[in-house]
Amino acid sequence: MNFNATLIGQSITFIVFVWFCMKYIWPPIMHALEERRKNIADGLAASERGKHEQQLAEERATEILREAKVKAGEIISRAEKRASEIVDEGKVDARAEGNRLLIAARAEIDQEINRAKEDLRGQVVTIALAGASKVLEREVDQHTHDELLTKLAAEI
Amino acid sequence: MAAEPLTSSSYIKHHLTNLTYGKFPEGHEHAGHWGFAHTGEDAQAMGFWALNVDSMLFSVGLGMLFLWLFRKAAKTATADTPRGWQNFVEWIVEFIDTSVRGSFSAKNDMVAPLALTLFVWIFLMNLMDLIAVDHIPLLASLLGVSHLKIVPSTDPNITFGLALPVFFLVLYYSVKIKGLGGFMSELAFHPFPKWMAPVNLLLEGVTLIARPLSHSLRLFGNMYAGEMIFILIALMYGGGVALGAFGGLLQLGWAIFHILIITLQAFIFMTLTIVYLDMAHQESH
After folding, report:
1. Radius of gyration (C-alpha) of chain B in whole angstroms
2. I need a labelling partner for A95 at 20 to 30 A (CA). Which of A113, B109, B154, B255 fits?
């Protein structure tokens, strides 16, 4: 173990190497690392932003879906209301129509009854005349007894 | 060396001797000439103005390897998906950056590259320890190189060569941030009251000087001891089949454990550097 000029040689070499490293090795590598760190940070921020936007879009989609559901519900309830209204209207119409038909039928029936009554009355007059002529066995003047006979027929 | 009989101690000594280039001292057979030392004693005798060629060669080579590999990644570094080598480099850079941010509170663009250089370079130097102790020296001896220590961090010159610039940086930033007066008052008026300034100065001075010493010796000691154990294990290969097999097992175990140590030592050296520089940047205690 003896000291000699190697000491000085090594010191000089050391200083030169450190200078070289400081000048040509460290800065480019650190620069690249820094740049990559920035790129990664940017990428992460962008992905964070994207995630946020996606979340917003999802929220919006949910909102739209909810609105659509509400609207659909409204439409359905309106349609149901309308349907029941139509049914009600139909019922009212039908009832009115029924009444109308009933009244018409009744009127017809009354008419028929009256007509039948008229017929009957006429026939009764004829029958009564025939009966009376049979009973009296003589010709009865139709003109003289017409009033009587009509009164009789009206009573039947 | 080849002429001497190969004993355990000469084997160890051989492995722990650097290939030193310097001027042979007076009284040597090659006195006055420049050349490679043949023995450790020769190297010692060459004094300060000699160079551990193997340490320098491997240290500079590994440092260049580090710079080249990382420069390759730095040139193609983009913010796109990293792949392969760039990914690995970014992982290390990120790790260093986190460590620096964790321990260094002031702002100084030099600390992080300094820490990166220290960590990877020391790790690579320590990594040489995992290559079997005899392989490369044997190869070198075939090429006529007498000594070769391939782990630069087992050479105290290398570890001091790393710790001293760090120490000077600490001094520089201490004076720059706190001013000379601030730095001196930090040394003199702490931890005891002001009237005990000489005692404080002595205590803090010793602490200050001890830092680069412990800083470099910690790395050197760990790597030297680890290398020594590898050499001792390698000695077992000469002791028959049973001992050799046991040695192989030991070497495997120690190498696996050593992977942890080399990384840890590189990390400790780097962290201490950051901490020392951070202390230099602190305005006051």
Report:
1. 22
2. A113
The whole-angstrom separation of Cα B199 and Cα B201 is 5
| Mean pLDDT computed over A4-24 | 92
Distance CA B15, CA B17 (A): 6
Q: At what angle do helices B111-127 and B156-188 cross, to 10 degrees?
A: 150
Contacts across the A-B interface (CB distance below 8 Å): 125
Long-range pairs for A99-107: beta carbons < 8 A, 24 or more residues apart? none
Residues in B closer than 8 angstroms to A25, CB to CB, are 67, 70-71, 74, 113, 116
Q: Does A30 touch chain B (CB under 8 A)?
A: yes
Active-site annotation holds for B214: yes
Q: Does A42 touch chain B (CB under 8 A)?
A: no
Q: Are A128 and A140 in contact (CB under 8 A)?
A: no
pLDDT of residue B5: 61
Give per-residue pLDDT as tens, A92-139.
Answer: 999 999 999 999 999 999 999 999 988 888 888 888 888 877 777 665
Percentage helix, strand, coil for chain B under 3-state DSSP, each rounded to 5: 70, 5, 25
Residue closest to A18 by CA, chosen among B165, B211, B73, B76 = B165
Residue among A4, A10, A11 minimizing CB distance to B48: A4
User: Which ipTM was obtained for this model?
Assistant: 0.87
Task: Encode burial over B217-235: b for 16+ CB neighbours within 10 A, e otherwise.
Answer: bbbbebbbebbebbbbbbb
Instruction: Identify the H or E element spanning B219.
Output: helix B197-236
Measured distance CA(B155)–CA(B159) in Å, rounded: 7
Neighbours of B74 (CB within 10 A): 22
